[in-house]
Structures are given as structure tokens and as C-alpha cells.
Amino acid sequence: MSDQNNIAYDKLAERFTKLHRLNHLSSIASWDQAAMMPSGSNQARSEALAELSTLTHELLTASEVGDWIQAASEAPLDSFRQASLREMAREWRQASVIPADLVKAKSLVTSDCEHAWRSQRPENDWQGFSKNLEEVLRLTREEASIRAESSGVDPYDALLELYEPGMTCKQLDGLFGDVKNWLPDYVQQATERQKSSDYLMPEGPFAIDKLKALGLEVMTLLGFDFNRGRLDVSTHPFCGGVAEDVRITTRYRDDDFIESLMGVIHETGHARYEQSRPKDTLELPVSYARSTGIHEGQSLFFEMQLGRSREFLSLIRPLLLKHLTNGKELPAYQLDNLQTLYRQVNPGFIRVEADEVTYPAHVILRYDIEKALINGDMTVADLPDAWNEKMQKYLNLSTQGNYKDGCMQDIHWPLGAFGYFPSYTLGAMYAAQLFAAIQTSIPDVHSRISSGDLSPVFDWLKDNIWSQGSRYTTSELMVRATGEDLNASFFKEHLKKRYLKG
Amino acid sequence: MSDQNNIAYDKLAERFTKLHRLNHLSSIASWDQAAMMPSGSNQARSEALAELSTLTHELLTASEVGDWIQAASEAPLDSFRQASLREMAREWRQASVIPADLVKAKSLVTSDCEHAWRSQRPENDWQGFSKNLEEVLRLTREEASIRAESSGVDPYDALLELYEPGMTCKQLDGLFGDVKNWLPDYVQQATERQKSSDYLMPEGPFAIDKLKALGLEVMTLLGFDFNRGRLDVSTHPFCGGVAEDVRITTRYRDDDFIESLMGVIHETGHARYEQSRPKDTLELPVSYARSTGIHEGQSLFFEMQLGRSREFLSLIRPLLLKHLTNGKELPAYQLDNLQTLYRQVNPGFIRVEADEVTYPAHVILRYDIEKALINGDMTVADLPDAWNEKMQKYLNLSTQGNYKDGCMQDIHWPLGAFGYFPSYTLGAMYAAQLFAAIQTSIPDVHSRISSGDLSPVFDWLKDNIWSQGSRYTTSELMVRATGEDLNASFFKEHLKKRYLKG
Question: What PANTHER family does the record tag this protein with (chains A, B) (predicted)?
Fold first, then answer.
């Protein structure tokens, strides 16, 4: 390896270290904006974040970065540095390929569209919204076409690449096409089956400080490192902050403990991934989380695979009694009742409220539609009818004229984040496949979980996923961890076992 | 005015707007570091803040900024822009005059000294500390000499300029020299006098949430804008954040409500100054707070002039009862008792715990010593004896061998912040002079305060000080507001009236 090329790699590492540090401040300020900031400060905060974003974009796309990538790629690098260079180059290419005026135009149009959407949605104002969305779509299609041309793939694949590197429509059509076949039948069977099992709702009101204490104790059980992270409250729960200081949020209701608790468990899955990334290279893209779908895979592993298992429910049942009933045994807190409660299947309009079984229908519907919008096979004007038709087909619900609970419900499209939705169901599939592999690798995993010994599960995830960062492609990562690339049958089997047989 | 020079001024305003926005993120991340961040994240946060600080220093000291200042200064500007240019040039000059390697060396040495001081102080380790402090002093003297040469003033005056622009040793010697003459006698008379008045201590324990609710209600009474600010907890209370989002902190003790309440009142004074700066030019130095002393003047106006007045105590007495005694009248909460309690004079070792009367002794002692250290009239080795001698003289206390409660008690010197201490007593003097002017301008101000109508006081401060930013020099500001430059006699009269006659 020539010295000169070593220098180029080192220069890149130095630039990405600088970006890592500056992005630290953006992440904390964004967390603060959602969890702490009073509303009157919003404009100043947004301006400050935009200013730093402009600056980091300049630092990332500066011409010398391209030169360093070129120089570093011409030298023999060891395999770690090859992977590191590949990931730095990906970041640089994705940021550099779009002309500055398109970046700015999209930022303005999406900011306006999202802002207006916040009041248009409650007013069911499709006319007003669709005009803005057309602009967002127009610029996103322009972006997709530039990205596609630069990387030699189809436009929608180029958008997928932003969230799920390496994923293609072709692979997704296979994965989701299969689900579309069996899902409507599963939903029907599951709802049929649960009609025969009554359950009791635990009765509130639940004091917020009790719900918080419960959440904190469950986070501790799940290995959250409070020396490098916090739990707070925000309107829309999320996992933010930085790997060295992970900030998760939830929201509390005094009439229900399940939403906040499952939210905390979900975000703790995201948090542990971030907290367990390789410490010595945290600042380099090669240590970043592999993809949005793999990230969601960790949160859904925690929430769905582990969190709703009978073993885990039996493990946290004493904590529920401790914090919510003053230690008293009540019928609603019996294990069988909790299990029934945690496994209700209810087809509904709203994705974010959907259960594990119906959720993929919401995602696949959006995938089909956004792919058609990007490819030009559908216009914004066609959107409400297409939505209604698919909701009828998958979940037997009509959204005719009900835009606010239909195609206006999500923030993703107003923000121009086309290509993101598939990650949710990919995450559910990754989670199921990972848990299946763990069951093979640790035959007594279920009894370990019931007994409170979660460390074998977390050690496995840490070794196979969390500590791997972006060292391998997603496909390689899954093959190394589970013996095969993503396969929807694990998810199908999981649902069958839990909802049709369990 | 030529177009070219307009352009230069506009370029400067644009650059300072960028800096204002980037500093917004540093301020919020620093507040978070003190009030929210778990300790394990400290290194990453410090690295992130240092990275942005390097970047903003580059943006401020870039050669084009000097060119713009030169070009703008050659054109006729209106008086507002003249003031604005003067303040931008001051910021630029103060940042540019010190060579980058000295900035870096001082940053490393002070960081080491402060870090070591945190354990050396409890261990009373003068030997260890003095070695580090010598290095800090050496570099600070180098800095002072460069600043002095560049601005044509004496070295210590050049350091004063960083905190109290326009202030000189000559003026300070006059202001403080007078205080040194009458203070020891005042302290003795006040302590003598209070021997005859017994008082009752309100008994705890006080619940933290009650203390917080009390603090929030008093902040509301004092006009704090919660739509652009918050109250939180930190080990060392401060006023941070940004003008658009002011973050104040306090700390609670369950055996005492006065410390947290007076802390909240003090920080609310700082906060209202920031929240009331001119909105249309917030991002420009011409709107910044005039000086550290004027800032402290606002907090001490709130805490000492207003907050410990009989009228204000009578106003908040119902709030004390509401939050601390469940509304019950108790002897310790009678107005006379509260007043006695709030006006105790107790000579002690520790500056931050000092009362209004003895506080100036602590400051003047430090001023005399640090001036001699910077001028080379004293060495670090002489420091403990000089400290002991002055403590004996001013407060009749010996610090012989007691370094931790003597010359090792403050964080300022470890941080290299020589020239800062005078601001505390200047603040007390500004506050007394401002309140005297208000009493002349609003003859019924005392009855207004007792009746809860604080708006005339705040309107006066807003018109005369807060909304003026740095439009005028400190001296001009005081003359415009009170008819004369800073005059220690108002402070002397205030203490006499409250502690020797009141």
C-alpha cells in the first residue's frame, strides 16, 4: 500500500470524524426540539439546525472528499478499510449526486407540505394537500431519476438505496408478493379465532410516575445503558441522540399502560443497537447501523419476538404488579389474560396503531402505491381510489372520502421520504429470522427468558448484528448470522405459530 | 454611502447570523451537558463542542472578516450600524488577536488544570494545584500582553475588556478602593446589630416538587416567558441556552427553600435580560448583553434589590404558604421573620455562599490578587499568604493552611478566566444604581411592588437596559438610564439602609 493512499484514507477518516462530532450536536438539538424545547423557540432552532446541516453538507461533498476516495480506492486496503471506504464513498455519493439547487428546492417544498399537512389532515383537506404533494412528488421523481442515472439502477431502487442499501424492487416484489397471498387469510383466521377468547382490560387510571418507573425497570432488564442514555417524553416516540448518548422517548396515557410500555421496549431495541456499535470506530460509516430495516429489525425483535412472548410476559408480570397494582394479584394481570391482551388482531385504518398481523398490509399497500407514483404509473390524483381499493382488498375496510385516515395519515410522503415504508415490514421479517436462528443456536432460549436470563439473546444479537455495524452488506450480514439471506417464511411461521396455533 | 461598503456591512451581518445560529446549538448542547446528559457521554460531548468551537472560531477570524470590517468602516454608516460595526469588530478583534497555537495551548492547560482541581480541591492539595496554576498564569499573562499591545492598554485592562468592555483598573481602583474603606465597618455593625434579632428557621423537609412549583410560580410573577425557556436542575445553577430559548437551572435541598428560590429569582433576572434583547437584531453583537457586569446587575437587581425587599417578601409570602405549609400560617413564615431570615450577615470563607454585605470583600480580595498576578507583582507561590492576610483584614477570618476554602475555592482561575471577578461586585453596584433611578422615576414603586404590580419596574428595565443590547457603551448606557456613570455610593446607601437602619 503506498503512503499516499494511506494518507487519503486517513484524510477521509478525519473528515468523517469531524462530521460525526458535528452531527452529535444536531442530534441532541433535534432530540431537545422534540422532548424539551418550548414551542416558541421552534423557528430559531430550525434555522440553527439548517445552518449546521448546510455546513456539514459542504464538508461532506467538498471536492477534496471525492479526490481522497479516488486515491484511497487505487491502493490495496485491508478488508476492514475496504468496507470502511465503501461506506464513506456511499455517504459521499448519496450527498454529492444531487445538485445543491434541487436539495434546497426539495427542502423548501417538503417543509411547506409537511407544515400544511399538520392542519390539512385533521380537516380532511385532500384538495389542499394533493396540490402540495404533487410538487413533492415532482421533485422526488427528479431526485430519483438523477440517483438512478448515477448508479445505474431503476428510480425507485435508487430511493430504496437511501434506507435499505442493496435492496431492490425485484427482491421486495418477491418478499411482499408472497405475504400478499397469505395475509388476508391469516387476518381472517386470527380474528375468527380470538372471538372465542374473552379478556379483561387492566383498569386505570395509571399514575404517570408509576408508568415511568415501570418503563425504566424494563429498560434495565433489557440492558439499556443509562450511563449513556435517557428516557423522556415526546408526542411521537423515537430513538434519537447519538451512539454515545442514546435518547429514547415514549408517551404516557393514564388509561393504558401497554402503549407506553411496548413503545419503551421497541425503542430500547433501537437503543441497544446504537449503544453496541463498535466503540473504536463509532465515528466512521462502517460502524453505522446497517440499514433502516435492520434497525427496525432490532426494535421489532424486542417488541414483537421477545416482548410479546409468553416467557417475557411472565418475566415482567411481577413488575406490572409492583408498579401498577401495589403488588396485588388482579384477574386482568393473570398471565393468560395478559397474553390474550397482547395478541389482539384488529384490522384498522391507522398504520401506527396496527397489530403485528395487519401491519404488513399497511406497508405493502404503501409500497405498491409509492412505487407506481415514482415510476409514473400513477398520479397523485389516483391516490385516494388506489388506497381505498387496496384497503378493501387487504383489510376489508373502506376509506372512500376518508382521506385523513387513509392516504393523508403518514408524515413520510409530505417529507418526501419515498422508499422508507418497506423498512417496517423488512424489519419484522429480519426480526423473525433472527429469532429463529437464536432458537436454533440456543435450544433452551425460552426457559432462559422466563427465568430472566436474557444475556444469551443479547450476546447473540451483539455478536452477530450490533457489533458488525456496516462491515458487511445486509445480505452478507444475514447469511453470516442466520445461514441465509432474508426469507419471508420465518415471519409467516412466526405469525402462524403465535396467532393461528399459539 | 457607497454600495461596496453597504455590501461589506451586509456580509458581516450575514457571517454573524451564521455564527449566532451555530452558537445556538453549542449553547443548547452545553445546557444539556449540565442538566440532562448522563456522565458516560461527557467525552463525546466535549469533543463535539470543541469541534464546533474550532469551526466557529475559523468563521469568525477568517481573513475576509477583517477585510469587510475595514471596508465597512470607510463608509458613512447610520448610528445604529456604526454601533453594530463597532461590536462586530470587537468580537473579531478579540478572537483574531491571539495566535491559534496560544489558543490551543491555553485550552489544553486550563482543561487539565480544571480537571485536576476537581480532585485537588477536596484534598487541599495546594502543591499539586499550584504547579498547574503557574502554567495557566504563564499563558494568561502571555495572552494579556498580546491583547494589551494590540489595543494599547495595560495587560490586566485588556483582560477586563473581555468581560466588561471599557472598564479599567483606574476606574475599578476608585470604585473598589472606596468600598474597602467602609466595608469592614459595615460588616461589623451589621453583625453586631443582628445579634439582637432572633428568628425562626422554616422547618423542612420540603418536597422537591413543591419547591419546583413554587419556583415556577415566582418565575411567572417575574415575567419569565415559558414559551421561550425552561427551568431545570443542575449541580451548579446557571442561565444558559439562547435568547430565543433561555434555560435556567437551580438545585433543590429538602431542608431549605431559600437557596433554590433565591437562585431561581437570580437566574430569572439574567433570563429576562436575554428574553428582552431587541428581537429584530438578536443575531448581531449590537444586540448582545452589554457586559458581564450589566448581566450580573440584572440578576442581582432581581435577587437583592427586588427579591429581598420587604415589599417583595410580602408579595410572595402567600406563595410560600401555598406550596410549603399547605396554606397554614406558621410563625417562621411571618413577614418580620422572613425579612430577618433573608438579611442575615455571616462572614464566611466561601464566596458563593456569601451574603450581600460580605460578598464585595470576597471579590475585591480576588481583584487585588489577580491584578498583581497578571502584572507580575505577585507569584503563584505568594497566593496563599496574600489570601490569608486579606481575609483577616476584610472579614477577620484565617485561611492559613486551608487552601480548599481559600485560594482554591473558585473555578475561574483554573479556567484561566482572570478579569472576571470584578463583574460580580460591579453587578451589585449597577443593580443598586438602577433601583435608585427607578425609585426616582416611579415614586410609588414600593407600593406597586407590594400590590403585585411589577410591570412598571420591568418596563423601566426593558426600556433602559434590556432592549438596548450593546447599542451604547456601558458608561453611556448608565448615563442614559440613571443620569450618571457607575457610582458606588448607591450600593453603599442601599447596604446602609437595609442592614444598618432597615
Answer: CARBOXYPEPTIDASE 1, METAL-DEPENDENT CARBOXYPEPTIDASE
Q: Are the C-beta atoms of B189 and B500 separated by less than 8 Å? A: yes
**Distant-in-sequence, close-in-space partners of B164: CB < 8 Å, separation ≥ 6:** B291, B292, B293, B419, B422, B423, B426, B474
* CATH (residue range A208-342+426-487): 1.10.1370.30
Is B280 an 8 Å CB contact of chain A? no
Q: Is A203 a catalytic residue?
A: no
Give the three-class secondary structure for A239. Answer: strand
Selected for mutation to probe chain A from B26, B33, B37 (highest A CB count within 10 Å) is B37
Task: Band the pLDDT of A5: cuts 50, 70, 90.
Answer: low
Cell 384538495 belongs to A127
Which of A21, A55, A227 is closest, CB to CB, to B39? A227
ipTM: 0.95
The beta-carbon neighbor of A48 closest among B21, B48, B49 is: B21
| CB-CB under 8 Å, B25 with A49 | yes
Find chain B residues with C-beta within 8 A of A44's C-beta. Answer: 21, 24, 242, 244-245
pLDDT in tens, B208-257: 999 999 999 999 999 999 999 999 999 999 999 999 999 999 999 999 99
Q: Are B249 and B35 in contact (CB under 8 A)?
A: yes
Kindly state the cell numbers that stand for A317: 408480570
Contact between A429 and A491 under an 8 Å Cβ cutoff? The reply is: yes
Partner residue opposite B228 with nearest CB, options A29, A32, A41: A41
Grid coordinates given for A19: 462530521
Rounded (10°) angle between helices B3-35 and A42-61? 100
CB–CB contacts below 8 A, A to B: 103
Mean pLDDT of A426-449: 97
The DSSP output letter for A285 is G
Strand (E) positions, A390-431?
Answer: none
Instruction: Read off φ and ψ for residue A233, nearest 5 degrees.
Output: -120, 140
Give the catalytic positions of B in this structure: 267
Residue A1 pLDDT: 46
Question: In this structure, is the dihedral angle defined by the CA atoms of residues B237, B238, B239 and B245, taken in order, positive or negative?
Answer: negative
Shortest alpha-carbon distance between residue A47 and chain B (Å): 7
Cβ within 8 Å, pair B25-A55? no
Residue located via cell numbers 460578598: B359
Q: Which residue of A has its CA nearest to B22?
A: A48
Domain boundaries along the sequence of chain A = 1-96, 208-342+426-487
Do A424 and A296 contact (CB within 8 A), yes or no? yes
Q: Give residues 52 to 91 of B whose Cβ lies within 8 Å of A.
A: 52, 55
Q: For B292-329, what is each residue's pLDDT tens digit?
A: 999 999 999 999 999 999 999 999 999 999 999 999 99
- Listed as ranges, residues in chain B with pLDDT below 50 are 1
> Residue for cell digits 442499501?
A165
Nearest by CB: B48 against A25, A38, A48: A25
Give the 3-state secondary structure of residue A229: strand
Q: Which residues of A touch B50 (CB under 8 A)?
A: 21
Distance (Å, rounded) from C-alpha A44 to C-alpha A51?
11
Q: Which of A35, A138, A17, A180 is nearest to A84 (CA)?
A: A17
Query: Does residue A3 have a pLDDT over 90?
Result: no
- Measured distance CA(A363)–CA(A351) in Å, rounded: 8
Contacts of residue A24 in chain B, CB cutoff 8 Å? 29, 44-45, 47-48
Task: Map residue B276 onto helix, strand or coil.
Answer: coil
Q: Residue window 34-53, chain B: list those with CB within 8 Å of chain A.
A: 36-41, 43-45, 47-52
Peptide bond into A384 cis (omega under 30): no
Beta carbons of B227 and A25 less than 8 Å apart: no
Residue A245's pLDDT is what?
Answer: 98
Q: What pLDDT score was predicted for residue B1? A: 46
